[in-house]
Design goal:
- By secondary structure, this protein is α+β, with helices and mostly antiparallel strands.
- Helices cover 38% and strands 26% of the residues.
- The protein contains ten helices and 15 strands.
- The protein has helices at residues 4-25, 44-60, 90-95, 166-177, 189-197, 211-223, 237-240, 248-259, 264-270, 273-277; strands at residues 33-37, 40-43, 65-68, 72-74, 80-88, 101-108, 111-119, 124-129, 133-136, 139-140, 153-156, 182-184, 203-206, 227-229, 243-246.
- The strands form three sheets. An eight-stranded mixed β-sheet has the order 4-3-5-6-7-8-9-10, sandwiched between helices.
- The longest helix is centred in the first third of the chain and has 22 residues, at 4-25.
- It is globular.
- It starts with a helix and ends with a helix.
Length: 278
């Protein structure tokens, strides 16, 4: 098998190639925009970024499989699969807001092996290898050691694809809001998870994310010493897209707060997972 270090280096190279495409289009006039769903745009920048990312990886690993936001699953059944979000934060990107990123992960038989989140506008590169730690601009990073929700600084995202679950989310949000010092919604889940891994955010929670939103961030958080689970404390996050993450103390109290309002079964009854996550 290819060395993990070679896989990570390829992920970084591919993410940088995608970022160059995005820089070219950012704040430019005449960018082609289409709609995947209500309030869910896709642009020529997304597609071009994905294309160059996939090409960069295929030059090194032509037989690997891919799961990408715009192109879906393709490329075979190799045990190594690349999970790609070529532009996380498309709405921010369209508005000229500089909070967006590229996320590239490689999974081995479904479990992340290498992950990269690149924030071109902020100059932030987050990387992780399974068993090798997590790094922010080549310096080791660790999750927050805050013991609980009191005084915490959190990140979240609104379930804009899962309207049936909105009231449930808002009840949980209120409970958490009353305990936390602050909650931010920046609009790029992969970047939120990267900053959670770095200890900037003490924790993160969101419903109905897609695999490409979380594959790299999952590894970053875990390799930085944090916890990353679904609402029930399990590992169905790639199926349901529901995430609770952070350092041990904050993760535990976030889960407790969520459990008062939401669990995986309840959310599935309100909003079946397949419709929101794919």
């Amino acid at each position: 098998m290819e060395s993990p270090e070679a896989i990570l280096a390829t992920a970084v190279e591919a993410a940088r190639a995608g970022a160059e495409v995005l820089r070219h289009h950012f704040r430019s006039a005449g960018l082609e925009i289409a709609a995947k769903g209500q309030n869910d745009p896709v642009t020529a920048a997304d597609r071009e970024s994905e294309q160059v990312i996939v090409e960069a990886i295929r030059r090194r690993f032509p037989d690997h499989a891919f799961l990408a936001e715009e192109g879906g699953a393709h490329g075979g059944t190799h045990e190594l699969e690349w999970v790609i979000d070529p532009l996380d934060g498309t709405n921010n990107f369209l508005q000229g807001h500089p909070t967006w990123c590229v996320s590239v992960a490689c999974r081995q038989r479904g479990e992340p092996l290498a992950g990269v989140v690149l924030d071109p506008q902020g100059g932030n590169l987050f990387t992780a290898l399974r068993g090798g730690g997590a790094y922010w601009n080549d310096r080791p990073m660790r999750v927050s050691r805050r013991p609980g929700l009191a005084g915490s600084f959190l990140a979240t995202g609104y379930p804009f694809r899962a309207h049936a679950a909105l009231d449930l989310y808002l009840r949980a949000f209120r409970d958490i809001f009353l305990q936390a010092r602050g909650i931010r919604r920046c609009g790029a889940a992969a970047l939120d998870l990267a900053f959670t891994a770095a200890g900037v955010y003490d924790g993160f929670f969101e419903f109905r994310l897609s695999p490409w939103d979380i594959a790299a961030g999952l590894l970053l958080v875990r390799e930085a010493g944090g916890r990353f689970t679904d609402l029930d404390g399990g590992d169905s996050y790639f199926v349901g897209g529901n995430v609770v993450a952070g350092g041990e103390g904050v993760w535990r109290e976030l889960r407790q707060a969520m459990a008062r309002h939401a669990d995986e079964a309840t959310l599935d009854r309100l909003d079946p997972a397949g419709a929101a996550v794919c």
